[in-house]
Amino acid sequence: MQLKPLLERLYPLHRTLASDEMDEALQIVGAVMPSQAGYTVERFTPGEMAWTWRVPERYVVHEAYLETEDGRRIVDFADNPLHIVSYSPPVDALLTWEELEPHLYYSEERPWATPWIFKYYQRDWGFCLPKEVFDALPRKGRYRAVIRSEFLTDPARGGFAVGVGVIHPEGGPDPQAGEMLISAHLCHPMQANDDLAGVVTAIELAHRLAENPLPPGSMSVRFWFGPETIGTIVYLSHHEELIPRLKGGIFIEMTGNEGVIAWHHTRQHDHLLDQVTAAVMASREHVARKFADFPPNDERVINGPGVNVPCISINRWPYDEYHTTDDNPMIIQEAMLQEAADVVEEITRLYASNYIPRRTFRGPLFLSGNGLWVDWRENWALNRAIEKIMMRFEGEQSVFEIAQDVGLDYWMVRDYVEKFRLKGFVERLPIPSEAPAW
Ligand SMILES: [Zn+2]
To answer: Looking at the domain covering 4-56+156-353, what would its CATH class be?
Structure first.
């Protein structure tokens, strides 16, 4: 599907940790997710514990503006939600320049743009504006700062929400195989690449997996949309039963700007998911970089202490417009979104369909007697690899690792191993969970 028009629909909403327009965004996502996903919005009660955190309050801004004392308006929340610090508490005060200045935020690097600043936890009110506007403000005279905001804790007012849908493989869910988690965050107000780009890329992946399902016995793929970091903490802390079922995750963000795809490895570093990702990246023409360091994100929750689901991140970081008004649909390219969807699709298909074959037979298998011999005139490479593949049915290596070892295409090897399985010579062991015992 076309992704940029969808991104443009979500872009103008005042999306934040929890708000009416965040709900609207979650609803739009639900309306465009494939129906097979059974997408639902789940709500949580503000103030409740979420491991060592608390479920955030819902944020309402009735109006907010900064004016000179004589009524000249400098910035207005109605023009752009980035003009206030996200989660600013209310204020209505007449202030001198000296009193106002500590509450003003601008970007040195992009003096024409308004930065996005948030103070979710160490709360303080503030206004954000271009440095050019800041520089031109008179230092004499007084300013009127008005933010009429509210923090709602009553769950009847909407609470804190995330959206979730699951696409199952052909033949329905396989409890042994478990699930893969695809995560993208919706919470940055008026930011296009960070991370509506990741959201629409994930939606595209959901459509591709619905139209062309993973083979029977594969992992199900769970799609998660909500507020970055705290949303994942709230969701997983309320669904601890999911953790052992999750075999891997991809955190997708910043996929729409011009730039190469980059990926960040799992906390395990050399997990099967890292090997799959490295192989997918190596097979593509564009250069992918692997980071040693990256700011902590949802993959650090998913792959974090006591959870430990191997999780990579896929993005086109860095980009100059990051966390400013310049991160808008102008920098988003349909081709970049689609290419990112291609990459995550390939990783997902490989990782979610992979399993560990374990033999049930003894002695050399009578191949031709069981229709398992491969004619060298039809597939010379596979014919040469038969013995090597059969020697690796010890319940230790996954199909992907066997394919890597013998230097053949994953899907060719998988098709071949499936023939053994369907004859009862191999049983399918799932990719193990990395979840710690609790
Ligand atoms: Zn961000």
So the answer is: alpha beta
